[in-house]
Design goal:
Elements lengths: L5 H13 L3 E10 L4 H13 L3 E5 L6 H9 L3 E5 L23 H19 L6 E2 L8 H7 L6 E2 L15 E2 L18 H16 L9 E5 L6 H16 L2 E3 L8
Parallel strand pairs: 1-2, 1-7, 1-8, 2-3, 4-5, 5-6
Bound molecules: zinc ion.
Length: 252
Amino acid sequence: MIPDWSELDRELAHWQEAGMTLPLWWRDDDAMSHSTELERLATLAAELDLPVHLAVIPQGVTPDLSRFVADHPLLIPVVHGWAHQNHAPAGEKKAEFGAHRPLEELLDDAERAFSALKETFGASLRPMFVPPWNRISPEMLTWLAGAGYTAVSTFTPRKAAKPASGLLRVNTHLDPIDWKGSRSLLAPEQLIAQVARQMRDRRLGEADNTEPYGLLTHHLVHDEAIWAFTAALARRLLDGPGEAWIYDERMS
Ligand SMILES: [Zn+2]
């Protein structure tokens, strides 16, 4: 089935008339090792010429990942929690860095995560912290900079560009996976309507268009429908107002 993109295409036409540009970025979560799915991610990034911020789980990282990343400069490693382990009590939403543990423990894990990946990836690591399940204790934000980070990324439009001194917030805005249902692609018409709405809000000044618009993917669980939709959406945005954005710590 070919999705109907007309709602987004109409919005993109308004962007063109207005002469606006959309900073566009891509975050892909849960990498630990080299895999055929990771190869596919790297191939798509090259086809689109859109870098991927690869959120790597420090505790499970293997040397083959660092070799693969070194050979693929469009893959930009960032830090995805420590062990991707849930510490929330039963019945609560999953979180590794939620307020369920003492702040000191959270910061120790964040620091350990940073040094582990610094050792794995060297200078190619960007000091961005991506908490698993996109949840982080607000108390932790003030202290993240002290643990080595200059950026934090979760999901949904940010409320503030600088949640703490020396810390930039750059969130993601669209996740195409139906996590609670089929674990395949959400209804494409629903996703297309969501992007069109988010872009209209930015065009009309009702949302912050200086925040890079983030696509969030999870290469290890993609089926064909998810790969195809991600490629088609990114291509459309890049053919229109989208300009590839890469995090650089000088921005913080
Ligand atoms: Zn994750």
